[in-house]
Please model this.
Amino acid sequence: MNVVGHSPPPFFKRGPAPLARLTFYLALAVMLMVADLRFHTLEWLRIGLNTVAWPLQRLAQLPLEAGGDLGQYLTRVSTLQTENQELHTRQLSTANMLLRQRHLEDENRQLRALLDMRSRQPVGGQVADILYAARDPFARRIIINKGLQANISGGEAVIDDLGVIGQVTRVFPLTAEVTLLTDKEQAIPIQVERNGLRAVLAGAGAGSMELRFLAANADVQVGDTLVTSGLDGIYLPGLPVARVIKIDRDQAFSFARIFCEPLAGVERHGLVLVLDHRETLPPRPDELEPVKESGIKGRGRKP
Model:
């Protein structure tokens, strides 16, 4: 039964022949190409299609580009990890040499400074290495690698490139003991470089020193540099010793308390210079033989 108002589709629907359609489309294509070539009539259409198709092209290329970027990233990560491992291995293999080279450079710099100081002094000296500190924790003493075999003798002054460190107190065949200026039993005659005031500087322990037996009104100021006076016949005059850092002037006491810090690397450096003994000073007046009064009184008298 047929539905009212609807007719069945034709069983065979025929249009233009295939050859005719092919001919029509070929002719249309040729006309469009000639028109575009001569008059650029399809330029706007080409631009519009390119604009519409560009996002689609980029979207289609994204998986391929992402795969390439991921491969390059993994390759770079693997290469960087390999190079990092090689550099780490090389650093570990050369770490000892680098640390040793830095230590040698510091020693070479200090050695040049010591040799320069020795050239400025009128006496000779020997460079020595500090081996270790003395066992007594309350004493400020060090052991150096020069002893009797190097003609080191007791009482010789020990300095570095900045100033006085201490004095040789005991000598062994291969080593020697040096008592530092900061030791409580060590004292050194000094003078204030600014005004020439003479005094005695004693060790106070813990890396500090104290200027003793100076009147409360003595002309000493914070920041004054103290140098050796040379009156003891051991230290050369003019060697830097310490700097004044604090002064307590209490009128209740006759003497001022003057605290100082050593200028030299008393407890820091690893190389020192042991100075030879100074030239023998003339004997003190009280050590001279007394002049016979009888010979003096008898001279020029009449019998």
